[in-house]
Amino acid sequence: MTTNSALLRRTLEALGMTSAALARLLSEMRDDGKETGPGTVSRWLNGVSATDPGVMGWLRELLRNKVRNQGVARIDWGLTESVLLIVGNAKGGVGSSCLAAGLALIATESFNQPVRHIRLGVHNHDESENFQKLLRSRKIASDIVSFEQLANCTPHEKEFVIVDLARATMTPEELARAASQLPYDLLLVPADFTSGDIHATKRFFQSLSKPDSVAFLHHTGWKVSIDFARFARSREFALWEKQFINFIFPRSTMPPVDWEGSGKWNSDDQEALYTELFVELLERVGLRYEQLRSCGPEIESLTLEQLLQAAGH
Question: For residue 186, what pLDDT is reported?
């Protein structure tokens, strides 16, 4: 059973409010000339004193208003038990790690889904630690596993597992065997399909055990071409049209999130692109989603616990 002190702590986190700020706001609203000191709020948070129910009700409505204004995406799992998504390509330098981390953030913070981020191998230790530090600071489980440990990384019920299939020193065939250890629902293969150097991508694809569960993302660099599918076919890269995700995802010169500073998205465009990509991937694995914002009466009936869950806390 969740205590009021725990609910208060989570609610303040969801509102981005400190205990000192709460004490100050409560003092400003009092009409008896007295103050609510930080010590009072501290005792509420520590469970030493009973939390004022009027304060909890006021904070609940502040949170309801925040959820109402920002909107929250809700996923309808239906009969789907879980989702295992692999992001990877035997061609290095195509942005697989950034994509995997960005999708984990979007799934957690914009869609309020439980996520585990897993990375195979380490070919850039500093980069791996940066991703781990960022994701764990956002309360997202993130681990680096060996080839032998990979087979144990299956998702729990109603959970997304996003596997960053880091290229390391593996050949395309070895990387395909690593992917085939997992019962993946979708394998996202990023590549610059306007590049002449897509032979490793082709070998990787041809070595997969479930080629029908692959989606290709044109993750382009500085050169943008809207005719990438035709170009890929001209390089004897035999693809079904449906396997291409039908929009271009430009690669940024910087990571999607400032992992060394604020932890915020580096641009609204990046966040919007990752959101659009995640929605596309949801549809490809048979999941539906809806914006809670459009369901006003439903928001009005949510309890504080439900509002916290909707806000990702």
Answer: 95
Name the residue among 245, 257, 269 with its Cα closest to residue 191.
245
Give the DSSP letter of residue 166.
-
**Residue 118: its H or E element:** strand 115-120
Q: pLDDT tens digits for 208-253?
A: 888 889 999 888 765 556 666 677 777 777 666 778 887 778 776 5
* Of 113, 47, 164, the residue nearest 310 (C-alpha): 113
What are phi and psi for residue 11, nearest 5 degrees? Answer: -65, -40
Cα torsion 281, 283, 289, 290: sign: positive
CA distances to 80, 113, 167 from 74, rounded to whole Å, are 15, 9, 33
Average pLDDT over residues 87-102: 87
Provide the 3-class DSSP secondary structure of residue 81.
coil
Who's near 51: CB < 8 A, 6+ residues apart?
4, 5, 8, 44
Residues 6+ apart with CB under 8 A from 227: none
Percent of the chain with pLDDT over 90: 16
Q: Using CA atoms, how far apart are residues 192 and 93, in angstroms rounded to an integer? A: 10
The CA-atom distances, in angstroms, between 278 and each of 99, 145, 217, 232, 273 are: 10, 24, 12, 24, 9
Cβ distance 114 to 162 under 8 Å? no
Closest CA to 133 of 259, 268, 290: 259
Beta partners for residue 188, in sequence order: 87, 215
Task: Output the six-digit token pair for 288.
Answer: 């539906």
The stretch 49-77 carries a mean pLDDT of 82
Burial of 266 (0-12, 13-18, 19+ CB in 10 A): middle
Q: What is the SS3 assignment for 176?
A: helix
What's the pLDDT tens digit per position in 162-179?
999 876 667 888 888 888
